[in-house]
Every structure is written in structure tokens, then in C-alpha cells.
Amino acid sequence: MNKFIIVLLFLGSPVLSFGDARLFSSDQENMRTLSFNDTDELTLLTDLIWQNIQREAGSLRKEVLELALKGYQQMQEQGLLKEGKPLTVIDFDLPSTQKRLWVIDMRSQKLQHTSLVSHGKNSGLIKAEKFSNTPESHMSSLGFYLTGETYVGKHGASLRLDGLEKGINDMARSRAIVIHAADYAEPTFLKNYGRLGRSLGCPALPTENYEEILALIKEKSCLFIHADEASYKKQSVFVSQG
Questions:
Q1: What number of other Cβ atoms are within 10 A of residue 24's Cβ?
Q2: At what angle are helices 38-53 and 62-77 packed, to 10 degrees?
Q3: Neighbouring C-beta atoms of residue 155, cutoff 10 Å
Q4: pLDDT, average across residues 134-157
């Protein structure tokens, strides 16, 4: 993993550079550097990205972003992600009435997209409260995914997903869990019914900008689907808390 470095400045006002997670001063003669362990690097990276996106991020919580970045870093360490691949976060703690999907450009560390997103019909009505990796469960699955290839199916352009967590989401491809657009994920559906419609387990998006999102995140980028579920945090190889 690339080590992130903080530069402590003695003079002048710092300028944040999010491209390589450092603080810089024009007066380079008056600074020294300290290296950090993995936990400190994660905290620093989270702080830097959060500072850059929080005004536009709406309901995204910093602690969810930190979990997403923790898994993202581990995926990089394992050689699953190329440098600069985007990070997509979905937070199913939030109801379907709110935008709960975010796409972060990890090169610029800026927010590129936010969106409504539907959950599986057997996961809950307004909020996703139950999750499954089982075929035909019609539930959403939590955890970390690698995005795959795009194809054109019954919902138009769609993006295949490969779950990376055994027993949690590793059946995603065989379950045909993909990102696609759907009329029940449209803002008009939300306005008419007070919630989004639900899928058979897929994260379904409104049609506006969805093809742009698919083009950005396809071909082995990181997707993290979050919910504050103790069993997931205990089992996950990426965010295990015991």
C-alpha cells in the first residue's frame, strides 16, 4: 500500500492536495514529515476526502465512508483494484426516500454522483432491514464487490457485480445481482408512492445519469453496500470488528 504522509507546517497557511493525501506549504524549508501506520493512514485519508465532499454528500456519514475506505485499501493491497479506480458506496441504513448512493473519484477525491437506489423487495419496505446471499431470496446483500462488465438486458444497460465476501455476497453473479435502471427507482415513483419500488435484490437506479455512472464504475472498481448489522461486521473479511 502507498503510505500516506502528513506534513506539519510551521509557517503559512496549508493548501490541501487530495490527489496524494498530503498537506503542502509553499514554504518547504519550514516543514517536517511523519509517517503513519495503517490506522492513522485510514483516518487521514478519510478526513481528507470527507473535507472535500461533505458539503455535497447529503446523508453520507463519515463513519460509513471510513468503512468503505478500509475495504478499498485492503482490496488494493490484495491487487484487486488498480490505482485510481472509483469508490461507490450504498448505505441501506437510509430509507429509499433519500439519496443513498455515492460515487467518489479516488484520483481527485471528489464526489462525482449521488443517486436514489432501490433495494430488494424482501429486504424491507422503505428501509432494507434483512439481507441474504441466497438465490431467489429477493433480498439485497451487503459487503464489498468488484464491478464487472456491462451488458444490455431486459432493463437496458446493466452492470454485473462480483461479491468478494464468502457467505455474504459471493453468490451475486449467479443470482444475477446487477446494477440497472428501473421505473420504480424514479423520483416520480417516490413522489407518487412515498417510497421507491423494490427489486429482486439488485441495486436499481433512476434512468437519469445511470449510464454515465455505469461507464464510470464498470470493470473492477469497488462497490460497498453498507448497513449497520453486527453479524456482517463480525464476519466481513474487510471490516471485521471481532
A1: 15
A2: 130
A3: 18
A4: 97
Q: What digits encode the pLDDT tens for the residues 58-90?
A: 999 999 999 999 999 999 999 999 999 999 999
50: which 3 cell numbers?
470527507
- 82-235 topology per CATH: L,D-transpeptidase catalytic domain-like (2.40.440)
Calculate the alpha carbon distances from 194 to 94, 119, 125, 187 in Å: 14, 15, 11, 10
Q: Nearest Cα to 69, choosing from 57, 81, 59?
A: 81
pTM over 0.90: no
3-state SS of the chain is CCCCEEEEECCCCCEEECCCCEEECCCHHHEEEEECCHHHHHHHHHHHHHHHHCCCCCCCCHHHHHHHHHHHHHHHHCCCCCCCCCEEEEECCCCCCCCCEEEEECCCCEEEEEECCCCECCCCCCCCCCECCCCCCCCECCEEEEEEEEEEECCEEEEEEEECCCCCCCCCCCCCCEEEECHHHCHHHHHHHCCCCCECCCCEECCCCHHHHHHHHCCCCEEEEECCCHHHHHHCCCCCCC
pLDDT in tens, 28-61: 333 223 334 578 899 999 999 999 999 999 999 9
**Domain layout of the chain by residue ranges:** 82-235
Q: How far apart are CA 126 and CA 145, in angstroms?
A: 24
